[in-house]
Amino acid sequence: MNNNIETFVTADGSVGLYNKELNEIYHSKFGAKTESLEKFINPAKIIDNHPLDILDLCYGIGYNTKCALDNFKNINSVDCVEIDRELVEKSLGFHSDNRIKNSKFIHFYIQDAREFVKNCTKKYDIIFHDGFAPHKQSILWSEDFILKLSKLLKPKGIYCTYNHSKPVLNALFKAGLILGYGNNSTVASFSKDLIQNPLSEFELGQLNTKSAITYKDKNLNLTHEEIMRQRLEETKSSNLKTLSGYLKTHKT
Question: What CATH number was assigned to the domain covering residues 32-249?
Fold first, then answer.
């Protein structure tokens, strides 16, 4: 496996990964499996009533897929997107589960997630979006990427991510999704019936501040550094209120 990747055992006994190059862990140190259940699987259970097509974006070492197999009764397909082939191969050793290794309905796409969303025409009931945080990997959280990704979601589908940063919420909102929150996570859907804890008007108002200016990557080909530099320039020139200014004038 990539020399920049180290394994460690999380608090619930599941294996997690640490990326030395990015100084980021792939999962919470409190439990890789626990995090998957709380932030991805449990929020998506609201639609476990028909054959499900699932997109596991940024598969990593596969906990979201593994936990989906354990918790959803009726799965039609799982498409797993991950740029690191060695990471996928290593993940199969973490899960002594032949369902992942030999399943005819689990498909792996070893490629840049941006290329995948540009070329994919399939629609999904559930999308797990589990990339590194935007301050390290903004290419997977731009407004343009999320717009493309949202077009892969069925009208009665649900999107789940651990990320609840303002720029990402704003990108989802601009894509026409209804936003909600889970256990320190975000859920979104085109159907309001699937959002049990929607954002309040006060919370939605925060998306019209400088802190919620989205990452831009029009052609889905910029580097992380280019995206961050562009956003910094846009923030500096913006006439939007600061988040602190909004909070002062809109006390709950």
Answer: 3.40.50.150
Which pLDDT does position 251 carry in this prediction? 73
Largest CA distance in the chain: 57
pLDDT tens string 68-114 = 999 998 999 999 999 988 888 877 776 556 677 778 899 999 999 99
Tens of pLDDT along 41-62? Answer: 999 999 977 899 999 999 988 8
Three-state DSSP at 108 gives strand
- Alpha-carbon span 152 to 188, nearest angstrom: 13
Range 14-22 contact pairs with CB under 8 angstroms and sequence separation of 24 or more: 14/63, 15/61, 15/94, 17/60, 17/61, 17/87, 19/132, 22/132, 22/136, 22/137
Report how far apart, in Å, the C-alpha atoms of 15 and of each of 90, 116, 132 are.
Answer: 11, 27, 17
User: In this predicted model, which residue has the larger pLDDT, 12 or 158?
Assistant: 158
- Nearest-Å Rg of the Cα atoms of the chain is 18
Least confident of 23-37, 154-168, 205-219: 23-37
Tokens of 244: 């602190």
Mean pLDDT, rounded, of the chain:
89
What does the block give as tokens for 46? 């609201």
- Name every residue whose Cβ is closer than 8 Å to that of residue 60 and which is 6 or more positions away in sequence: 17, 26, 27, 82, 87, 91, 130
DSSP state letters, 158-198 = EEEES---HHHHHHHHHTTPEEEE-SSSEEEES-GGG-SSB
Q: What DSSP line would sit under 44-76, residue for residue? A: HGGGTTSPEEEEEES-TTSHHHHHHHHH-S-EE
